[in-house]
């Protein structure tokens, strides 16, 4: 297994109290595999990714438990120097907002070339050639001519391609893409997503794709992990999950998007609000919003049960849920 996150816990100490953002996340990604991480805003998708990458703001954030095994080593036990080596060469991250992730006062060529001079000890000339190669690879037209331009001189879609190029530069084994296309308009979204999926296949990388967009997930992901209140509530191969969700929250998410195969059916909205992470409900955190909740759900916290090989659900009533 390329990445194996086990029982990860992260909290934030704030003036108002302790926000329990990640409460025992367990997920794994293999080489060449795409794991989509799905869930409402505030469910802990980004914080989990930041903890895996080693870029969590500490303080206020604090990892209070768990393991992040990457190629067999627990990253949480490495010092910052070791950790930095893993970032970039081992794993890289793509963010939603390229404009704030790229350096505004350096040309795109310099930023790309720096990856090779700093991390690979290459000459300036060699590094620039590599930069052009990367820009070609992410299909930026007239790469050589655009090397001397600054991030703001590129369109949103092109900037996102540059960030993908930066992430790919050192050929990491794992890429974490956090809402990589959310800021783009729809047609450009699809192009950037296709590019990312293609490069991932070509290079055999593991990919964690954090997204709100269930439509994107179906096309590119192998597996899905659905998060709620800082936990994985369901995990399954994409098509199994679409066919029959094993958790009422997943069902709610699926029923709240328009689908061609369900034309004519009314769209559904999950009732209520995401939980306050300073006061997560007892038992199953989803119970106040769950149409299937029973007494046990208010008192006992469900484990992630093995639904069948390769599938897990943290619902006492997953069988009923599967039957629909
Ligand atoms: N810097 C911070 N200080 C305090 N609390 C934080 C901080 N960053 C995150 N949190 C807490 O962690 C929770 C989870 O945040 P996270 O960014 O992981 O959500 P998300 O699932 O990525 O949501 P979105 O879909 O909106 O990106 C937040 O609701 C917030 O309570
Ligand atoms: Mg996020």
Automatic annotation (TrEMBL):
<keyword id="KW-0067">ATP-binding</keyword>
<keyword id="KW-0547">Nucleotide-binding</keyword>
<keyword id="KW-0472">Membrane</keyword>
<comment type="similarity">
    <text>Belongs to the ABC transporter superfamily.</text>
</comment>
<dbReference type="InterPro" id="IPR013563">
    <property type="entry name" value="Oligopep_ABC_C"/>
</dbReference>
<dbReference type="InterPro" id="IPR003593">
    <property type="entry name" value="AAA+_ATPase"/>
</dbReference>
<protein>
    <submittedName>
        <fullName>ABC transporter ATP-binding protein</fullName>
    </submittedName>
</protein>
<dbReference type="InterPro" id="IPR050388">
    <property type="entry name" value="ABC_Ni/Peptide_Import"/>
</dbReference>
<dbReference type="Pfam" id="PF08352">
    <property type="entry name" value="oligo_HPY"/>
</dbReference>
<dbReference type="InterPro" id="IPR017871">
    <property type="entry name" value="ABC_transporter-like_CS"/>
</dbReference>
<feature type="domain" description="ABC transporter">
    <location>
        <begin position="5"/>
        <end position="254"/>
    </location>
</feature>
<dbReference type="InterPro" id="IPR027417">
    <property type="entry name" value="P-loop_NTPase"/>
</dbReference>
<keyword id="KW-0813">Transport</keyword>
<dbReference type="Pfam" id="PF00005">
    <property type="entry name" value="ABC_tran"/>
</dbReference>
<dbReference type="GO" id="GO:0005524">
    <property type="term" value="F:ATP binding"/>
</dbReference>
<dbReference type="InterPro" id="IPR003439">
    <property type="entry name" value="ABC_transporter-like_ATP-bd"/>
</dbReference>
<keyword id="KW-1003">Cell membrane</keyword>
């Amino acid at each position: 297994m390329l990445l194996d996150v086990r029982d990860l816990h992260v909290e934030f100490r704030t003036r108002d109290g302790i926000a329990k953002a990640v409460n025992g996340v367990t997920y794994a990604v293999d080489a060449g595999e795409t794991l989509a991480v799905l869930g409402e805003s505030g469910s802990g998708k980004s914080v989990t990714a930041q903890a895996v990458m080693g870029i969590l703001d500490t303080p206020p954030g604090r990892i209070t438990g768990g393991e992040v095994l990457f190629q067999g080593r627990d990253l949480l036990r490495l010092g910052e120097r070791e950790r930095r080596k893993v970032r970039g060469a081992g794993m890289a991250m793509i963010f939603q907002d390229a404009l704030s992730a790229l350096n505004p006062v350096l040309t795109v060529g310099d930023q790309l070339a720096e990856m090779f001079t700093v991390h690979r000890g290459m000459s300036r000339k060699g590094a620039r050639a590599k930069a052009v190669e990367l820009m070609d690879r992410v299909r930026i037209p007239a790469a050589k001519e655009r090397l001397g331009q600054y991030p703001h001189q590129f369109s949103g879609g092109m900037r996102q391609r540059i960030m993908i190029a930066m992430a790919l530069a050192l050929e990491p084994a794992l890429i974490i893409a956090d809402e990589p296309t959310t800021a783009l308009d729809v047609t450009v979204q699809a192009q950037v997503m296709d590019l990312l999926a293609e490069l991932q296949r070509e290079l055999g990388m593991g990919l964690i794709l954090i997204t709100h967009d269930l439509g994107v997930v179906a096309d590119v992901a192998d597996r899905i992990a659905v998060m709620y209140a800082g936990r994985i509530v369901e995990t399954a191969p994409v098509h199994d999950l679409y066919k029959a969700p094993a958790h009422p929250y997943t069902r709610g998410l699926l029923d709240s998007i328009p689908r061609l195969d369900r034309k004519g059916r009314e769209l559904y909205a999950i009732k209520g609000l995401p939980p306050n992470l300073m006061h997560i409900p007892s038992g199953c955190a989803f119970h106040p919003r769950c149409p299937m909740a029973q007494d046990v759900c208010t008192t006992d916290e469900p484990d992630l049960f093995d639904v069948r090989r390769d599938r897990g659900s943290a619902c006492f009533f997953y069988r009923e849920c599967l039957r629909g």
